[in-house]
Amino acid sequence: MFAGIALAEAVDKVHNEHSNLDLKNGELSRNLKESQEQLGKALASCTSLQKENNGLKLEMEKMNEELKSVIREKDEAVTCNKQEVEEAKKQAMTEYKSSPNFSADSTRFHTEALKIGFSLCLEKVRLDFPKIKFPDYSCLEVAKEAHSKCLEVAKEAHNKSSDSGESSGGEEEEEKN
After folding, report:
1. Does residue 92 contact residue 117 with C-beta atoms inside 8 Å?
2. Which keywords fit this entry according to its UniProt record (predicted)?
3. What is the pLDDT of residue 167?
4. What does the DSSP assignment read for 27-84?
5. Which residues lie below 8 Å from residue 115, measured CB to CB, with a gap of 6+?
6. How many domains, the chain?
7. Which residues of the chain have a pLDDT value below 70?
8. pLDDT confidence of residue 107
C-alpha cells in the first residue's frame, strides 16, 4: 500500500511539475512573442530612420550641388564683371574721345564714362546672374555721386575764374549738364 501511495504521490508530483512547466512555458512563449513584437517595431523604426537618413543625405547632396552652382555663378559673374568693366571703359573712352566736347579733364567726360561703364556692367551682370544677390548701392549711384562732386569742382573753378574776371561759356554749359 505504501507503494500505491508513493506511486500516487509521485504521479501527482509529476503532474504538478508538468503543470508548472506548462505555465512557465506559456509565460516564456508570451514573453518571446512580446519580445518579437518589440523587435519588429524597433526594426521598423530603424528602417524608417534609415530611410529618413538617406533622404537627408540626398537633400544635403542636392544643397551641396546647388551651393557649388551658386559659387560657380558668382565666380563667373566676377569674371564677367571684370570683362564688362574693361569693355565699358573702352567703349566710353572711344565714344568720348571722338566727341566734339571731349576734354580729358572735363567733368562731362568723367561723369558720362562712369555712368556708361558702371551701369552697363552692373545691369548686365544682374540680368545674367539673377540668383546672385548684389548690394543695393548701385554703380549708377556711385556715378551720380561722382558727377555731383565733379560739378562742385567745376563750380569752384568757375567761381575762381569769375573772381578774377574770367568767365567761360564751356563751364556754364557743364554746370547745366
Report:
1. yes
2. Coiled coil
3. 45
4. HHHHHHHHHHHHHHHHHHHHHHHHHHHHHHHHHHHHHHHHHHHHHHHHHHHHHHHHHH
5. 140, 143, 144, 147
6. 1
7. 1, 80-81, 92-93, 95-126, 128-147, 150, 164-177
8. 58
